[in-house]
Every structure is written in structure tokens, then in C-alpha cells.
Predict the 3D structure of the following.
Amino acid sequence: MYKVMAPVRDLGYLDGILEAGADGVYTGLQGSSRGRVCEGLQEKEIEELLIRCHKKGKLVHIALNAIPDSRLTDKLIEKISYLVGMGVDAIILNEVGIVSLAVKRVPYSSIFASVGCGILNIDDALFFEDLGVRGITLSWMVDPEEIYEIKRRTSLKVEVFFYALREFIQRGKCILGPYLMRGTTDLRRGGNCINICSARYEINSNGNSGVCLLPLEEYMVTDAFKSYIEAGVDLFKIQGREFNIEKIRKIVSIFRHISEGRGN
Amino acid sequence: MKIEINTLIPDLHFLKGMDISAFDAFYIGFPFCRKFEGNLSEIPEDMEFSISYLKDKGKRVYLTTYATPLTRDLDSIIESVERAVQYGIDAVEVHNYGVLRMINRNFPSLRIHMGSFANIYTDATVIKLKEYGVKRVTPNYELRIDEIEYIRDKSGMEVELLLHGKIPIGISESCFSLEIAEKTGKLCPEACKQAVVLRRDGWVLRNMGTLMLSGKDMCMIEHLNMINKAGFSIFRINGFSENPAYIGSVCRIYREALEEMLSGGIYKREWKEELYKYSTDGFCNGFYFGKSGRLYVDAMGNIHE
């Protein structure tokens, strides 16, 4: 049975999110996750998060999606080991080497490959399954027919976005942030995407000039929801650790409304 | 030390317009969009001609493959690699792990180069990739030069560095050239042939359809001594978004500079001055010095916007 995973950046949000109907939550670990705006939780807070969620039978996934310098990977593996020991249900990672180290050095870990790993096709999924991951998060570019093929040929848990901000540049294929403003927007190095791509630009092409905004759209699975269920999707993710509690609760409620067949 | 300078040739028009003499090797094809007009990895007769032409001139030829393939793209990518193998390709460049897995299974003896969009950030990734027949990697352009050096030394893998030209900084799902077709009057597949310049508050970017590039030219001419001392020997110069005449001239300058400095010569200011003439929006150094990619760090360590 599919589940909906909601973001939690503050423990104060937790009851509200679970009451709205989330089956689980995900968050970052401070210092090892993306986001200077949404800093992630500290280890003690994650401990409390786990106790409160597991008491209610809810899942907890922790994103350690900032990729460290090669010389610091051991420290990251130690953190993964600690979190797995604590009982988190899955660790979300963002780079092949880190995934491979975690699988090898942290037995019984359940590793998910983040959307930042750029998994787009069946052979990508097989590659990450070979590495030892238990789950993958797919981009909205992968349609239900292709997800069906992944579910048919692998034993992976498949997570897709129920709600996200759909940026112009693909997830996992963008270094525009650090190109323009290193230190705050280098997503894979612990920065935060500030959707710099969606700013207003003057354009010039072969003598034609004007002003443009690169597309940044809200994405929500509505009409296609049934197709994703039939394809075998296990988890629906609500993107937005930066959102406030009201917005997250509202999206979870919409998910419940749609999933219970009460329309779009 | 034997050096290799290579570049990417997207189509026959580009190949015919450029001076190939200073280059050692070429990646053929356009990995950012399969519909790119004349894409050498998609048109069998153009692929055959370009491989044969370049091999006859004593150059090494590598096929590049589509960077963001969905399942429906995979069969044709394998067909394309199969064709290129028949035509005598020396290696294949891969940006996607699914494509890597397929090529390794179907062509176990084929040399594989992992491209910059494979998101290689650590030595652990490079070590893992050896199991899949990978012989060369281009770490993500976001890495500093000391990180790249560490990865190379720990893994023992060949590492390719971008030395000059526009930096690929993003691949989009939809085509920007089509988003602005009303303004330009150009449609697919010709729309992206003319690069679009985007400006905002002193920032400048270039776009070619689904590919976002730096607006400034990456330039490492002032730092060749450091590059040489660090032992790097495989270099890429990007010019596929420029007039084809640009790339041959830029490569000649780097060839002269690298050979002269490797044989004990010293840096000449005129190399940079000459390169500057080919640049429309100035220089940057990308991420090698740990700064924002659009900035330029000179040999004295001064940072220039």
C-alpha cells in the first residue's frame, strides 16, 4: 500500500503533519543535508522525532544529501551508522560512491537514492539496485508506464513526487546556483536551492531581445494519480522543507482527498 | 608527459568549419538533446563520415551519449554505440548510470569515459566505476582542483579537466529555445543552433535549447604551471556554442602554451591577451579555486567579477 511522506523541518510541525494524514516524514540532519534556510534537525531532535513517529507507526526518512569532500566521507558514514542504529527507516543519499560506502559499511541500512542521483530509466534503477539501495526517488519526468517497468524488473521501493516546485533545470543536473553564488546556493554541498533559475533575465538572440522568466511551476499529481498507483508507486513525496506548516498540512489533506477517491 | 587536448563536435557543419590540427581527440555528438540538428550520435551516415575523417587524420574519436535518457531512449543509444564500435570508435562518453550498465554488459571491452553530468564527487564513486569498465572520469565541474587531484590520486583513474570555454551548468527538461520561439521565430531543430544570451545584474548565461552554459569563458591559461605540476594531462576545450573557427584558434594557443611550459618555458601574457580577443563576455575559472564559478581568479590570487 502506498504512503505519503511529508517534510518536517521543525518538531513543532510534527503533530499537525501527522494529524493531516501523513504516513511518514522526512527531514535532514543538520550539517549533512542541503539547506541553509531549512537547516535540518539535530541528532537529539531526530531521536525525539523517531520516538514520536514510531509510536504512531509512522515512517522516518533522513536525507543526508550534502555530498562531502572525498576526505570527509568517513565522517558521513559514521553519521549514517549512528542514524541506522537509532532506527531510522531509510537514509536518503545523493552520490554513487557514498551510497556504495554506506551499503558496504553499514549493514542493515536501508538506503534510498535521492532524486539528485538522476535516476531516469530502468537500467539506472537496476544500477542502483546492484549497488544495494532499497529505494529510489524518481523525477516527474519518469511516467507511470516506465515506473511500471521498474517495479516489474526490480525489488526497489519507488518514490515519486506528489507535490514539488518544478524548476526549469532538471534535478541532479544543475550547478547554476554555485556558478552564480557559491556558498549559499550550492545544493549538493549543503547549500539551498533558491530557484535562481527563475529570476527575470534579459535575453538576446541573434538581434532579438526581450525579457524572460525561466519556468518555475507548481507540480502536483492529480489526474494521473491512479496511473501512478497502478504502476506500483510505494511512496509519494511532498517536497518543501522550506514550507510552513499550513501549506504542508494543506497538501497532505489534498493527497488524502485524492487518494480516497474524492476527486481532484 | 603526454598530453591530450580534446573537444566536442556536435555536427558535421561544426566539423567542417573548424581547424582540427591542434587537437588530439574528439567527442562526437550532442549529449544534451537528441533532437539537435545534425547530432552526430544520432545520424548513422554523419557518424560514419566523421569517425572515418578524424581517424584518417590520426585523431582519437569518442562517441558521446545522451545525458538524460528515459527508458524509451535506451535501445537507440545502444544501437548508436554498436554502430560507432563498428566504425572504429576509441571510447564512449557516458553521463548516465543506466547507460553505463548497458554498455558495460553489451560491450565489455569498450573503453568508457564518464562525463561531467554523471555527478562524480568522490573517490569512492570513481573506485566503484572501475568495476563497470570506466577508464576516465570528468568529475562534476563543481569540484575544486585539489579535490579532483585527490580523487585522481586515490583512485588511480585518468581524469579529464575542462581547460577553456563555456561550462555546461545545467540540463533542462524543456527546451528554452522553444519557450522563446515567439521572440526568435525559430523552431526545432534549428532553434538551438543560435545560442541565447541571458543577462541579469552583471550575471551572464548562455543557453542552447536544453543546455545552460556559463556566459563567461572558463580560462586556465594563467594557471597552466599549477596544472602541469599537479600532473594533469587530459584537457577539454569547449567551443561548440561558438563559431567553429573559434575552437581551433583557442586550441592552438593552449597547445603552444602547454608544450612550452612543459619544456621549461615560462608563461607569456600574450597567450591570455590573444584568448581574450575570442571572448565576448570575459573569463572565469569555474569552480577550481572554490569560488563562485563565474568569478576569475588570477595567478596572484586576486578575484575578478
In short: Chain A has nine helices and twelve strands. The first strand of chain A starts at residue 3 and ends at 7. Chain A has a mean pLDDT of 91. Residues 245-259 of chain A form the longest helix (15 residues).
